[in-house]
Amino acid sequence: MSEPRWLDELEMAAWQGFLEASNRVARRLEQQLKDEAGLSHPQYEILVHLAAAPGGEIRMTELADRLITSKSGLTYQVGQLERRGLVRRRACPTDVRGVFAVLTGEGREVLRRAAPGHVAAVREALIDVLDRDQLAVLAEGLGEVGRRLRRT
Amino acid sequence: MSEPRWLDELEMAAWQGFLEASNRVARRLEQQLKDEAGLSHPQYEILVHLAAAPGGEIRMTELADRLITSKSGLTYQVGQLERRGLVRRRACPTDVRGVFAVLTGEGREVLRRAAPGHVAAVREALIDVLDRDQLAVLAEGLGEVGRRLRRT
DNA sequence: GTCATGTGGTTCAAATTCGAATTACTCGGT
DNA sequence: ACCGAGTAATTCGAATTTGAACCACATGAC
C-alpha cells in the first residue's frame, strides 16, 4: 500500500467547511422545526416528500431511499406521524406486502403552516449567505456528489 | 406576516443538493470508519481534534463546541473511548471542575492506522468529485455559513 | 406446480442522542 | 469572608436510530 494522498490546504478547508456547515445547519433546522412546528426534521421531510408525490402517497421503501434513512427508522417515524394523524398507511393493491404512506388532510395542513418558518430558517442559515454563483456550485457539485453515492 | 419568499429553482437545487450530499456523505463515512477502524464518526473526530491539539488534550466543553455535539453526548463518547484506552481524562489543575480529554499513545496509534482509509473515503465521496474552483466555493461559502451559525 | 431466491415491511435489542436536572465549583461584588 | 450568578461536567430518562432477524409474499427457473 502506498502513502495516501493527504488533503492539501484547499481540500482540507473545503472538507472542514462542508462538515461544519452540515452539522450546524442540520442542528439549527432541527431546533427551528421542533420549536415552531413540533416536528423533527425527518418527520418534516416525510411530509414534504409525500406532499410532492402524485396522490400524496409513496411506498415505504421508496420513501426510505429518498429520505436516506434506514427502513426501520422510517417505520418508526411513520408510526409517530400516524399516531398524530398526519399520515396513514394504505395497503398496496398490486403487492400484498407493500404499504403506501399517505398524507392526510391534517398532515397537509400542518405542513402548510410549518413551511414558511422552515423556508425562512433555511434562507437564514444557508441560502441567503451565498451568492448565485456559489449556489450554482452547490447545486451542480453537491448534486453530483449525491448522485454518485446513490449509485454505490 | 407577509408571503414568505419561497426558494427559486436554483436555490431549491442548491438546498436539496446540500441536504442529500450531507446525508449520504455522512452515512458513507460512518460506514467506512465502522468497517475499517471500528470507530464511529464522532469518535474519530474526537481523536482527530485531540491529535491536533497541543499536548494532545482539550477541555471537555471546548471539545464539545468544536465537535458540534451536546456536552452530554461528548461525555458518553469520551467514556466509550476511555473504556477502550484510546483517551483518558485528566483533572484540570487550575479549575477543579474542569476535565481534559487526553489522547493516549494507543489512541494516537489507532488514529494513525485509521486515517489513510478515511482520507481515501473522503476523497472518493466528496473531494475528488469536485474541481478546484468548486472546492474553493465550499471552503469560502460553507466556511462562512459555519462561522455565522457559530455566532448565533 | 414447485422450489429457491429475493423483496417489502416490521419487530427487536442495543447503541446513541438530546435536554433538563444535578452537583460542585469559580468569580465578582460587597 | 460571604453571597448570587454563572460555569464545568456528569447523570438521568425519554426519544430516536441502526442492523439483524423475521415473516409473508413475489418472481423466475425448471
In short:
Chain A is mainly α. Chain A has helices at residues 9-37, 41-52, 60-67, 71-83, 105-125, 132-151; strands spanning 57-59, 87-91, 99-103. The two termini of chain A are 24 Å apart.
Describe the fold and architecture.
The structure is a homodimer of 152-residue chains. Chain A has helices at residues 9-37, 41-52, 60-67, 71-83, 105-125, 132-151; strands at residues 57-59, 87-91, 99-103. The first copy, chain A, has 152 residues and is mainly alpha-helical. A three-stranded antiparallel β-sheet of chain A has the order 1-3-2. In chain A, helix 1 (9-37) crosses helix 5 and helix 3 crosses helix 4 (71-83). The longest helix of chain A has 29 residues, at 9-37. Chain A is globular and about 55 Å long. At the A-B interface, helix 1, helix 5 and helix 6 of A face helix 1, helix 5 and helix 6 of B.
Task: Please supply descriptive tags for the structure shown above.
homodimer; 152 residues; mainly alpha; 3 strands; DNA-binding
Hey, roughly how much beta strand do the residues of chain A contain? 5-15%
Major sheet: arrangement of strands of chain A: 1-3-2
The SS-based structural class of chain A is mainly alpha
Roughly how many Å is the radius of gyration of chain A? 18 Å
Kindly state the percentage of residues in helix of chain A. 55-70%
Protein name (chains A, B): MarR family transcriptional regulator
InterPro entries (chains A, B): HTH_MarR-typ, MarR/SlyA-like, WH-like_DNA-bd_sf, WH_DNA-bd_sf
Domain HTH marR-type (chains A, B): 1-147
Organism (chains A, B): Streptomyces glaucosporus
